[in-house]
Specification:
Helix content: over 70%
Radius of gyration: 18 Å
Structural class: mainly alpha
Low-confidence stretches: none
Distance between the termini: 43 Å
Shape: elongated
Number of strands: 0
Length: 167
């Protein structure tokens, strides 16, 4: 649940900061002046915070414990997931790669959902996350929705807004 904080905070701060800077004539921030760009930044923050747990004990052991049994090499999967989260976070803050990284993040979140089911069922590891399934699923839906928003073409939204202002 704590990961909702960076999502909301960073998304809101990016929107606010770009609005303030653009109103002061700073044009270099235009690539960030959209909801898709802000959602991408917020999701990047979530992925960076989450990636830390893939490499730091005791959280790492807890994550290895919730990897479903049908997935081979759980240690390697947790490491690969952490690396993927970092790479996707970087991709989300680069305007040219944001859309691809957003779809990659959505796919990663969907692929990791079985681990949420295992965690909700409970495992014999004190470091394993133990949030009930419904709150975990709702949080995952919010992250997936943020990824979908980040994948939207920001230029269409910006152009449309500019056309309305000119009319």
């Amino acid at each position: 649940m704590a990961l909702l904080i960076p999502l909301v905070l960073v998304t809101g701060l990016v929107r606010l900061a770009t609005w303030v800077l653009i109103s002061r004539g700073v044009t270099r921030v235009h690539p960030w002046a959209s909801w898709p760009a802000a959602a991408g930044a917020g999701l990047a923050a979530v992925l960076l915070f989450a990636s830390v747990t893939q490499f730091v004990e005791p959280q790492r052991s807890g994550l290895v414990a919730i990897v479903p049994e049908f997935v081979p090499f759980p240690d390697l999967v947790v490491t690969a997931t952490g690396i993927a989260e970092i790479a996707l976070a970087v991709g989300l803050v680069v305007p040219r790669t944001r859309r691809w990284a957003a779809w990659g993040a959505v796919l990663l979140l969907v692929a990791m959902f079985p681990a949420n089911i295992v965690a909700a069922a409970g495992v014999d590891n004190p470091a394993a996350p133990s949030t009930p399934l419904l709150p975990r699923a709702m949080m995952q839906i919010v992250f997936i929705a943020s990824g979908i928003v980040a994948a939207l073409p920001a230029h269409r939204l910006t152009v449309h807004r500019a056309e309305r202002s000119a009319a």
